[in-house]
Amino acid sequence: MGGILGLIVLVLDIIAIVDVLKSFTDTSKKALWIILILILPVVGMVLYFLIGKKT
């Protein structure tokens, strides 16, 4: 069960990173969001979709 959950988190993180790269924000903000998503996979992804996508 843990493997499936990890795979789901990985896929969602990849989706979040691709969305960050496609956004029209500054390069520095993109880099910060990607670092946050990579360091804190679940929390970073949730924060990006709640807060970062609006900016």
Radius of gyration: 11 Å
- Global outline: elongated
Tally of strands: 0
Q: What summary fits the major beta sheet? A: none
Average pLDDT across residues? Answer: 91
Q: Work out the strand percent.
A: under 5%
Number of helices: 3
Taking pLDDT < 50 over at least 5 consecutive residues as the criterion, the unreliable ranges are none
Oligomer: single chain
Helicity range: over 70%
- Structural class, by secondary structure, is mainly alpha
How far the N terminus sits from the C terminus, by CA atoms, comes to 35 Å
Helix and strand pattern: HHH
Total domains, how many? 1
Write the layout of secondary structure elements.
Blueprint: H1 2-22, H2 27-39, H3 41-50
Helix pairs in contact: 1-2, 1-3, 2-3
